[in-house]
Amino acid sequence: MTQAALAFDAISVRYGAVTAVDAVTAQIPSGAMTAIVGPNGAGKSTLLKAALGVVAPQSGQALFFGQALDAVREKVAYMPQRASVDWDFPIRVIDVVLMGMQRQLGLLRPVRAADRAFAMDCLARVAMTDFAKRQIGALSGGQQQRVFLARALAQRAALYLLDEPFAGVDAKTEAAIVTVLQALRDEGAAVVAVHHDLATVPEWFDRVLLLNRKLIAAGPVAETFTPDLLRQTYGGQLPPQKVA
Description:
This protein is α/β, with parallel strands linked by helices and 244 residues long. Helices cover 32% and strands 25% of the residues. It has 9 helices and 9 strands. A 6-stranded mixed beta sheet has the order 5-6-7-3-8-9, sandwiched between helices. Strand 1 (6-15) and strand 2 form a beta hairpin. Helix 2 (93-99) runs parallel beside helix 5, helix 4 crosses helix 5 (141-154) and helix 5 (141-154) packs parallel to helix 6. The longest helix has 16 residues, at 171-186. It is globular.
């Protein structure tokens, strides 16, 4: 059996008396795009944060390529929710992307021309080279998402974890992000995204993890993204969106 890029092993997270994630066990393979789907408050973002150690799980663990995160951190890229970022911080677009290369660059080595060229290549993949010298706070929401995706690309990771990458972006940015993520998948990477738009799951994703604090189901979209399992996920009633 092929080793999972990410394995959730009985992860539980509680905030006080509230259980946000309840003993979730699932495996995420490489070479696939996986959507984490569920209602608001289902623990989707919390599950990713618990895997990464951003929040502390009460029990369980996450393994990355069969190891603890610290052993393979250079293989993992994380793109947080846009709302969680301080966009007023005075930094240029190119410098945001270079931040994604910090592990390769180190703390003391000066940034070389080759480093900047690679950062520009990452911006080119998301069609943002013309904005390289712009302050990040001066960009639109969709442009900011593209820049943070470019920063993730700069990490040259094997696993990409994205928390609502399509939230609040226009159709053009959606298409650009999907194209990049599908290319990463085709190159063999694992791509995992917290996602809300049920209508686009069959079109964009290969696999789906259905979550409502507890794991409802996980597997290929054709087998798992079914009306019955979606009703279980959303408490018996689907959101007002077209479901394949």
